[in-house]
Amino acid sequence: MQSADQAIPEPGWKPLYRIGGFATLIMMVFFLADTAIFFLLGPYPDSAQGWFDLLQDNRPVGLLLLSIPTFFGAMLYYLTFLCLYSLFRKSHAGFAALAALFAFVGLTILIMIHPAHAILQLSNQYAAAAAEETRRATLVSAAQMKMAEASAGLNRGGFLLEGAAVIFSILMLRGRLFSKTTAWLGIAGHGFDFVRTALNLAFVPEKITAVLLMIGGLPQFIWLILVGLKLIHWGRKAKT
């Protein structure tokens, strides 16, 4: 098998490694901001009516709790996984391609299913229909359906995305492009989240599986920092 170190880094990819590295660090800031917002302003409303009431009573807090930072962070994640694919595509072509496919499909699902836009639109219509109770009830039902669809989509997308991160972390462990610490943090952090989403897809209540996200959250954040810094490193060290 070709050594992992022989796959690095190609001159044509050098700018992308640096861009991907900085994008990964920025993405981590978005995710940390989303986590801080939850702990400072949460919990999230657990019903459509709760979201409508919050957005009418305290719109700034409602907008922050809609996890918009995560939406923008998820888009930056494409660059992270594209860079990881480039680094491993020669030494582990099959698994790198599989992980990249999982990541891109998972990310697309997460972005497309994000409920913020739908909830905002329906909330504005709800506020405008103040004297129409039937109309309001219809809007609440529509928003509740969107939330249910988003929950299922988030689990499907998360399952693929976390699976991709676990595969890339295992490839890190087998090569010398990233430290063993980075690899094990990715396997542990993303592994817990992978199991969580799998259990959610198997209809285990999210209140039970949430503990796995809490356990895996910190290793994932550290993994993002280390991956971002290493991508910047390879962007500077690439052969010319």
* Topology order in helix (H) and strand (E) letters: HHHHHHHHH
The total domain count is 1
Report helical residue fraction.
over 70%
Radius of gyration: 20 Å
Overall number of strands: 0
Compute the separation of the termini in Å: 25 Å
The low-pLDDT segments are: 1-6
Q: What is the average per-residue confidence, as pLDDT, rounded to a whole number? A: 90
Beta-strand residue fraction = under 5%
Tell me about the biggest sheet? none
Describe the structure.
With 240 residues, this protein is mainly α. The chain has one domain. Helix content is 82%, strand content 0%. It contains nine helices and no strands. The chain has helices at residues 14-41, 48-57, 59-65, 68-88, 93-113, 116-128, 133-174, 180-201, 206-237. Helix 2 packs across helix 3 (59-65), helix 2 (48-57) crosses helix 6 and helix 7 (133-174) packs antiparallel against helix 8 (180-201). It is elongated and about 65 Å long. Residues 1-6 have low confidence and may be disordered.
